# Entry
Amino acid sequence: MIKILLDTNMLIYREDHSVVDNNVLELTKILYDSNRYRIVIHPMTFDDVNNIKNKEEKKIIYSKLQIYNIIDKPPQATTDFNLLVGCSKIPNDLIDNNLLYAVYKDCVSYLITNDKKLRNKAQKIGIADRVLGIEEAISKFKPLEEKEIRTPVFILHEYLYNIELNDIFFDSLKEDYNGFEIWYKKKSRDGAKAYITRDNFGNLGSFLMLKVEDETEDYSKFEIPLKKGKRLKVSTFKVTNTGNKIGESYIKIMINEAFKNKVCEIYVTVFEKQEALINLFLEYGFFKFTTKETQKADLSIEKELVLVKNMNDNTYPNFSLENKNVFIVPIQQQYHEMLFPESEIITQLSFGDIQGINTYSNTIKKAYICNSPTKRINHGDILLFYASEYKKSITTIGIVDNVFSDFSSPEELYAMAVKRTVYSLEQIKSNFSSNSKLLLFKYYKTLDDPIPYEVLKQKGILKMPPVSIVQVSLQKLQEEKLI
# Structure
């Protein structure tokens, strides 16, 4: 949970008899309606309030401050720190420096203040990005609250208090983690949510819970502690319905949450016995970093692997354009909706979509089948998927894993593409030829702004709408800043 310190003036804006400023109201709603943030005050704030001359006003504000969380034993600003930022003999100056020192020493994540002098001091010691004015705070924290991660319709983002802890789904977790039920109930009271799926009988089939951690998190139980920083923790990950590629859907959700929260890393702890789960994480850029000891329900100790994913390295969903060929791949609208539901604002949902059994829409690894004669596509090349018909735009980026051709039968092709292609065996049979080609690729990104055909034509990328796979110039695309 992100701890946010309010200075005295911010508190007075909220707690005196005046009509509250609209910006203060908006910021208050963002911070207090969220389970991400914990509002705290510094003990020296009470000293600041004591300087108010109006006794009745002082009494009212002093009483209202009692409802806030007060930092316990905050670090005291040192003489060197006061000399560095400047400290006059005015009592308020020493109080301000101690508030600033709480941020400097990572006692809290942010300080919100409209005191320009205090913010200038923050600039001097390199923490200006963590000492925010009211409008800056609104701008920083509001997007986190408003942007909801889009998920397949069969994945629910549900409050823990609406998920039955007695479901047998949780039995293995209760065995593997001592105190799991106590932890779960605490998180439920805190208003935490999890991504889940259910079967036709309402039973849990999967569960993903994430937590954003900040610089104050304690990693001392790790054999090699993680460095201080903002990261996303995969608190709980379990999938029992393993046939529908839900694990890949959850990887996409993790990645999207990481980008949304602007974290430097994602990490997860997992027992070595969970080989399939470990391999899934390793495939998408996680690496084995260290271990930690975990106490199980029978009080025995077992080591867990700590897997870490660096969000800035050149693994999924990041990629290098160097020495890559680029191909525009046309796809009919109905198949585009099925294969890339993330790029569709409104889609016609089928029973399979609702039940999560249309695995091609859930997966990161997908299959594209065509009869294109091109033989230039190789591993690592870039595919720009062009939605034909009424969209007539590039919407999605994929990266090639493998290319296969020379199939002896449509059944052989289908066997390699099953669960990753939108085509049925009957459709493959009806279009099968000696040129039939299977592109296995990873879905990487839905473009925020699709690239229309008219722009592609105007920039000299295409001469006419593509009806088959066409290679285009990477240099030209980069010069025109299209990718």
